[in-house]
Amino acid sequence: MKIIKSIAEWRKIFRDLQGTDVGFVPTMGFLHQGHMSLVEKSVAENKITAVSIFVNPTQFNNQSDLDSYPIDLERDRQMLLEAGVDYLLEPTYDELYNDGFRYQVCENQQSLDLCGAKREGHFTGVLTVVMKLLNITKATKAYFGEKDWQQLQLISGMAEAFFMDTQIVGCPIVREDSGLALSSRNKLIAEDHKAIAPSLHETISSGLPVDEMKTALEEKGFKIDYLKEKDGRIFVAAFLGSVRLIDNVKL
């Protein structure tokens, strides 16, 4: 696996890869089996697989959330090497945002609901960095998890709206045996909350009316950010202590 530190270096490599199927998995690191399921699918479907690790500050509306985001780069590199990844991109902020974030990609409908309702600018940061990474890698396919369903729909819509060549591929949620959706943030869950956390998925899968789901979760100790039925799915974001968890299930 070759580690790429600069955009210019990747572009030089890509010139030699033209005509080759390139799969791409953008991540913020601290990888878990959810990320690796995307990597495995890319390796299976493409001749070349590239992964990026970049903790994107423009999608955080809370500085403390950014500061507490877990990082373990050496562990991530080893996981990707063992998975058969060909290239790991580790871009710097100064290279990706050489414009100082003056130019931004905004969506003004879907992005204002659910995770966007209380996280001003979150999806602008997400869409902007993803467009930059897709333009840099020129991947044939890019892989995103369905846990971040809203994000997946927005990225798919962006690729279509801007006539981007990369095919956006959604991949199923990977869960712990308890049902809790895998997330880099799960490591931050307090010990006395770990037995409660799986109740999030259990409750939204229960078939109860949404109001009853909300009551049940609050009684277990969750603080609800949103719990909503939309587009044939149930969406939830809830705090367990200081950790914000999200999930969704198809009705």
Walk me through the structure:
With 251 residues, the protein is an alpha/beta fold. It has helices spanning 7-17, 33-45, 63-67, 73-83, 93-96, 122-137, 149-161, 199-204, 210-220, and strands spanning 2-4, 22-27, 48-53, 87-89, 141-145, 167-171, 223-230, 233-240, 243-250. The strands form two sheets. Strands 1-4-3-2-5-6 form a six-stranded parallel beta sheet, sandwiched between helices. Strand 7 (223-230) and strand 8 form a beta hairpin. The longest helix has 16 residues, at 122-137. The protein is globular. The model has no long low-confidence stretch (mean pLDDT 96).
Topology, element by element:
Elements: E1 2-4, H1 7-17, E2 22-27, H2 33-45, E3 48-53, H3 63-67, H4 73-83, E4 87-89, H5 93-96, H6 122-137, E5 141-145, H7 149-161, E6 167-171, H8 199-204, H9 210-220, E7 223-230, E8 233-240, E9 243-250
Parallel strand pairs: 1-4, 2-3, 2-5, 3-4, 5-6
Antiparallel strand pairs: 7-8, 8-9
Helix pairs in contact: 6-7
Q: How many β strands by DSSP?
A: 9
Percent helix range: 25-40%
Hey, roughly how much beta strand do the residues contain? Answer: 15-25%
Low-pLDDT segments: none
Report the sheet with the most strands, covering strand number, pairing sense and barrel closure.
6 strands, parallel
Separate helix tally:
9
Major sheet strand order: 1-4-3-2-5-6
- By oligomeric state, this entry counts as single chain
Radius of gyration: 18 Å
Query: What structural class do the secondary elements suggest?
Result: alpha/beta
Task: Encode the helix/strand succession as letters.
Answer: EHEHEHHEHHEHEHHEEE
Globular, elongated, flat, extended or rod-shaped: what is the shape? globular
- First-last Cα distance: 41 Å
Q: Mean pLDDT, nearest integer?
A: 96
